[in-house]
Protein: RRM domain-containing protein
Amino acid sequence: MTEPSKVIHVRNVGQEISEHDLLQLFQPFGVIAKLVMLRAKNQALLQMQDIPSAVTALQFYTNVQPSIRGRNVYVQFSSHQELTTMEQNAQGRGDEPNRILLVTIHHMLYPITVEVLHQVFSPHGFVEKIVTFQKSAGFQALIQYQLRQSAVAATNSLQGRNIYDGCCQLDIQFSNLDELQVNYNNERSRDFTNPSLPSEQKGRSSQPGYGDAGGMYGLQAAGARAVAFPQMAGTAAMAAAFGGTLPPGISGTNERCTVLVSNLNSDRIDEDKLFNLFSIYGNIVRIKLLRNKPDHALVQMGDGFQAELAVHFLKGAMLFGKRLEVNFSKHPNITTGADTHEYSNSNLNRFNRNAAKNYRYCCSPTKMIHLSTLPQDITEEEIVSHLEEHGVIVNTKVFEMSGKKQALVLFETEEQATEALVCKHASSLGGSIIRISFSQLQAI
Structure:
């Protein structure tokens, strides 16, 4: 085996695997100092803060096969002791962010035109020019923004996401070009600052200097929904958030927003506890406990997709000694009244920001919960003391990510972890309002 190092080499890192996926795989073992994605090689280099953290991670994954999105990844110590500037630049992005992006489209099952690319990239800033072409790497495009910060924002938001459901994945790098030259305005190139440019004769190359897109990409995709980030069709947006495909059993076509929850423990449940549980799957508009049926409640979600996630992942979950029944309600919404609790303006709704990231965390209740927004001086003992009334705590791990303290807590059963989340999400610990969600990690 290679000499122990702070740097871990990860292989078989598919295009569907994001930087966040890798961070989640290693963050239980210590602080992650640097991460470099080597997209062209399907590899990554990840530097822990110290060698013991890296050793602990590799020892753990010697006995447990690490897997991300159903793909096995393989880890070993890198021959590098530190990630230098050279390795960090090897991930294909230029030394300096540039206002021109080089975009490669992977898994291109549908044609991509200038119009589609403009729809995807324009929400992040004014797009001046787009040129598309075909290279050995596949279908590519150069996209020139007016401002460099727009290109940076687009890269951060769109890297690794899909334009259509389950295909046409974006791989984005900064180009080293200073200015794009556009000769024609057509389906393969466009200068949005000069609409009077002619369209070329059909069959000729748009931009010989960049490559030839040919005529095969001029057709609009039949039956495919174009995705405009961030105002994209719900199903496509969520499929992108889930890595290209929706979870098994999720159709993405449900339009019913209100959920009926029954078989609740009426002695222990209240609206805020239901909010804490259901807000994992979407924003909550309002909740109503039914007076004539104390073990029933109505929960109105932000949209039909979020309601479908809640029904799918919570049906049959155990809470307070009861197995929950979760179904779509016949009521399209909950009428506001004295017995309803309003949450539409609550700053505790999780999906107002980073919606795609939160969708990625959606899962059925697990034995492991993840705590964030913790005080910087928090200890494992304080966390255990805060949560132990809800069940047997098997293990805990406090770690730091991007300078912020977080923790993983493993309970003996899913029901105990669910109770802890329901009762202690948005509670105060050491002067901080903590956030709790389920973790899909199997062990600490």
